[in-house]
Automatic annotation (TrEMBL):
It comes from Buttiauxella selenatireducens. This is EAL domain-containing protein. It is a multi-pass membrane protein. Residues 444-695 form the EAL domain. The chain crosses the membrane at residues 35-62, 74-95, 107-124, 130-149, 169-188, 208-231, 302-325, 331-350, 371-396.
Length: 709
């Protein structure tokens, strides 16, 4: 192997195994950052707006070319309206995103976000027309600041005892937050207006630096247009004033050139559209070609959407679908490709190898046609265009190839056994976090619709499934289960709980079950003694800061004599904050609550649960019973029982349905069981007679023993 080949091999290995790996790992932190996610959510919201705007501009160009001047003007005015609407849409969608993620009222979050935006806008200009004069940075900042402040206020109020169970806390926190923002803004407006003016002047001077008056400032302009896409922000939207002034100056320059009063400038908006934005910002037409060159690439499915749009230089589907957004790896070629194109095109123009731009051509005009028209029908310009397309493919290729090595889509599950986060590179338009966020929002809306239907067409009711001591077949505990009863009397099992999980409303369901089950026991089963009431608690509820206070409230009224309250945590569901869960469980045990681990053996990290959490009971999953049919099934069950015995917990097995299964689980050393062999889930009015009969039999047996003595 030659020294050159060895050097290339070392560089390639370093690129793939060091730089790209580190960049991929850094993406994990970005994907888990709630502020970055909020920005991406808002930028995703205007993707349809951007696509429609691009199509409207294309329609305007076609109408202008065909001589329909009135229609062309109408379409152009329409796209200006879309442009002005974009920041407001982003502001509103940040509020929606925040509400969904934090289980807050969307109405209040949206109202707070818009109110904050209005207040901030008035600080800068008392005469500004609100709906027509908003910058995207201001829209994003006001949305995040307003909702973060409301979150802080809400948590502070919940620490005050008299607010713990107040259903109007959202309203109160809304007005307190708005008052804080208004007060702070008034202080700035009245006492520090001169400083605000200076800050705005400073940003204005910075923006002037990006104005492409010469070669170096032209490089800055390329970076301005491409780098913000890392956060899903279009550079044109961020610094629209620069582009408006730049376009106006280019039109004046071309008019003066036609009149013979001035030479053509090298730099113009069309120059960037021709050489640096082929297929859209980042010269993404080269990226599309790279994807086509990878026959096994999962991104090829994306091209059915992205390729037709790229012909008109609309690249949002590709940027969000590949993705470029929040992707530290792909942002490198996304910036490097147009920068290389700028250097080559500027040099070729400066040396008169290709003509300077002599016509204003819309950015949405397909690439080769745009080059042909803007260059005055120059063949050399077309050759340079093809050369830049090839250079773009060369730059994008190693990065696209690297992304192909990431075989599976995003998976941000926390491994509870190791405590590590598992995240893989997205590999499909439908799997990337930003696109998935849109799918998530659609699922959220559908879940809300289903919940409203449940509430409208019936009511929730409680069922109880007895847990039995095998030795004497006595009921020792009742697991409370939720069901839905329609107005027609149809009973639905808890398949509807997935809608509450999607909307983050599981705590409301769990709280409802807990309160109503305890009230039912106190009212209808007060003469049944020494029993355990077992309530399922979801992972969402375990980390809800209202849980300890609610438990204190419901336990303020004593249970019937000898009754205990038990919470079942579900091992088959992932827990997002295991440290917080462990702390909560300790507090619950201090309040006298027993802790049971449900579905043991069917979930994420069973051993980790046994060592991390304080447990009183372990419920073995029905899969253990089904495993008894296998050759080593019984031996395996025995070993699981021994393992559970080490931590000194009661052991209950679920799903026992036959006499043979009962005999085997008893032989394995299990004392408690729950299943159809004894009882199915039953309404309270059916369970109570069973408990009453059991109490009478126990009393009769006690009397017989006493009489014998």
């Amino acid at each position: 192997m030659s020294l050159i080949a060895l050097g290339n091999f070392v560089i390639k290995e370093w690129l793939y195994n060091n730089l790209l790996r580190r960049l991929n790992n850094s993406q994990i932190k970005l994907l888990n950052n709630r502020y970055a996610n909020a920005i991406i959510a808002s930028t995703m919201a205007i993707v349809p707006l951007s696509i429609v705007r691009g199509l409207v501009i294309t329609a305007s160009v076609i109408c202008d070319t065909a001589g329909f001047n009135s229609a062309a003007v109408w379409f152009m005015q329409l796209q200006i309206g879309f442009l002005a609407l974009a920041p407001l849409v982003m502001n509103i969608y940040i509020a929606v995103h925040w509400a969904v993620r934090n289980r807050l009222s969307q109405i209040y979050c949206i109202a707070l976000s818009i109110s904050t935006l209005m207040i901030f806008r008035r600080i800068l200009d008392n005469n500004a027309q609100f709906f027509l004069d908003i910058s995207i940075p201001m829209a994003l900042a006001s949305g995040i600041i307003g909702n973060v402040l409301q979150e802080i206020v809400s948590k502070k109020l919940l620490k005050i005892r008299q607010w713990n169970d107040n259903t109007n806390i959202t309203i109160v926190s809304f007005f307190i937050t708005l008052g804080i923002i208004a007060l702070f803004s008034s202080v700035i407006k009245l006492g520090a207006e001169i400083y605000v003016t200076n800050v705005m002047s400073f940003f204005s001077r910075i923006s002037v630096y990006f104005y492409p008056t010469d070669f170096l400032h032209g490089i800055s302009y390329v970076l301005l247009r491409s780098v913000p896409w890392f956060f899903g922000l279009h550079g044109y939207y961020l610094f629209m004033d620069i582009d408006v002034a730049f376009t106006a100056a280019a039109k004046v320059n071309i008019s003066e050139w036609h009149a013979g009063h001035s030479a053509l400038n090298i730099l113009s908006p069309v120059f960037y559209d021709m050489w640096c934005n082929s297929g859209g910002t980042g010269n993404t037409l080269s990226l599309i070609i790279c994807i086509l060159m990878q026959p096994k690439s999962p991104h090829r499915r994306l091209l059915s959407i992205a390729a037709p749009m790229a012909l008109f230089n609309i690249n949002e589907p590709l940027i969000f679908g590949f993705p470029i957004v929040l992707n530290p790896v792909m942002i490198i070629p996304f910036v490097l490709t147009p920068l290389t194109a700028y250097l080559v095109a500027y040099g070729a123009t400066y040396m008169d190898l290709i003509p300077r731009i002599s016509e204003i051509v819309s950015w949405s005009t397909p690439g080769p046609l745009k080059v042909w028209l803007a260059s005055g029908h120059s063949v050399s310009a077309l050759i340079v265009y093809l050369l830049l397309l090839v250079l773009g493919v060369i730059i994008y290729h190693p990065f696209v190839k690297s992304s192909l090595k990431q075989s599976v889509a995003e998976n941000t599950n926390l491994d509870l056994l190791t405590g590590e986060m598992k995240v893989n590179q997205p590999a499909d338009f439908e799997m990337v976090p930003n696109y998935s966020h849109v799918v998530e929002q659609n699922n959220y809306i559908e879940a809300q619709r289903q919940i409203e239907k449940l509430q409208r067409d019936g009511q929730f009711i409680l069922y109880f499934q007895p847990q039995v001591r095998i030795a004497d077949s006595k009921i020792v505990a009742l697991e409370v289960l939720i069901r839905h009863q329609s107005d027609a009397g149809k009973i639905t099992p808890p398949v509807f709980l997935k809608y509450y999980e999607q909307t983050g409303m599981m705590p409301e369901i769990d709280f409802w079950v807990m309160e109503h089950a305890l009230d039912y026991v106190r009212e209808h089963m007060s003469d049944c003694e020494k029993m355990t009431l077992s309530v399922n608690i979801s992972p969402q509820t375990l980390i809800d800061y209202r849980l300890p206070n609610l438990v204190r409230k419901v336990m303020a009224t004593p249970l019937p004599s000898g009754w205990n309250l038990e919470f079942e945590i579900t091992e088959s569901q992932k827990v997002q904050d295991p440290v917080r869960v462990a702390e909560v469980l300790e507090k619950l045990r201090e309040l006298g609550i027993k802790i049971a681990l449900d579905d043991f053996g069917s979930g994420y990290s069973t051993l980790h649960y046994l060592t991390r959490y304080p447990l009183d009971k372990i419920k073995l999953d029905r899969s253990m019973v089904l495993g008894l049919a296998k050759p080593d099934g019984f031996n395996f069950l025995q070993q699981v029982v021994k393992l559970c015995t080490v931590i000194q917990c009661e052991i209950l097995i679920e799903g026992v349905e036959t006499q043979q299964e009962l005999e085997l689980v008893q032989k394995a050393g299990i004392e408690l069981c729950q299943g159809f062999f004894y009882y199915r889930p039953l309404p309270g009015d059916v369970v109570y007679p069973l408990l009453k009969e059991q109490r009478q039999q126990a009393s009769l047996a006690h009397q017989q023993v006493a009489a014998t003595v």
